[in-house]
Amino acid sequence: MSQADDAKTDPTILQEILTGLRSRNPEEARKWAQAPLYKERARLSAKDFATLVELQRDLDPEYGYSRAALAAIRKQLKSVDTSDLASLSNALEPDPNAEYGALLPFAKDANGVRPAMPERLRSFLKCVLALLAGTKTGEMTPEAIDAFTTIAGGAGRAFGPRGGGETLAAGGKRKPLPPLSYAKGHHWVSGPVRRLSNLSAEARKVFNKAVSGPMANLTVGARSTYNTTKAFKSFGTRTSTILQR
To answer: Which DSSP string corresponds to the chain?
Structure first.
């Protein structure tokens, strides 16, 4: 009989490993799912070591979730009854011998044209049914996800905040920007020069009023994408240097 078979369990070590293996924190569970338990064999009895090994084998080493718990959840979800949605699903099935309008509420078959549900609406309602089924089975199909994003996005655009940092998160619209004012043109004297601290009030007033006049392009506003050229910036720098002298 080996020394390990006669070992007595260290309660502190046992509790630490049990807590880690049963943790609901994914990071903690993943850590203990990959931990080398054999290193603690000398401080655990054969029975306790075997129990810990079984707990570790049940954990997925990559994600840390319990395989047994996941199997039980899947079994429970498969037994969920969704037959109450079957009649609605059948009612949405299109006639295979008819051609439906994408947006217009009409269908054409051998008997002619008749009122019918548009294809876009039919597709959306099918996605809604898939979403309702998902609330029971826990399975989110691509159709269910499509319905969820459509409904959430529509609600955000209708009731979400206008403008602000939370707008996009709520799916709302951006607050419309006011039209740009008609530009008065460029100042002949650059901003750094006009803001010199030792500039007299009279000179500052003259410089502020000295503009080129309205620009020919009406789409260019006071805050447009029109950029001052490097030559103009260079001129402003040289002017500032001369005035500071």
So the answer is: --TTTTPPP-HHHHHHHHHHHT-S-HHHHHHHHSS-GGGGGGGS-HHHHHHHHHHHHHB-TTT--BHHHHHHHHHHHHT---GGGHHHHHHTPPPTT-EE-SSSSEEEETTEEEE---HHHHHHHHHHHHHHHHHHH----HHHHHHHHHHHHHHHHHHSPSSSTTHHHHT-PPPPPPPPPBP---BSS-HHHHT-TT--HHHHHHHHH-B----S-TT-BTTSS----HHHHHHHHHHHHHHH-
Predicted TM-score of the model (pTM):
0.38
What is the C-alpha to C-alpha distance for residues 151 and 36, in angstroms, rounded to an integer? Answer: 48
Q: Which residue has the tokens 């459509």?
A: 150
According to DSSP, the residues that pair with 107 across neighbouring strands are: 100, 114
* Domain residue extents for the chain: 11-75, 84-170, 191-244
Q: Measured at the alpha carbon of residue 50, what is the angle toward residues 48 and 54, in degrees to the nearest 5?
A: 115
Q: What residues contact 241, with CB distance under 8 A and at least 6 apart?
A: none
Q: Each residue of 98-153: pLDDT tens digit?
A: 999 888 888 998 889 999 999 988 888 888 888 888 777 777 777 777 777 777 66
Rounded Cα distance, 40 and 6, in Å: 14
Helices 11-21 & 46-58 angle (0-180, nearest 10): 10
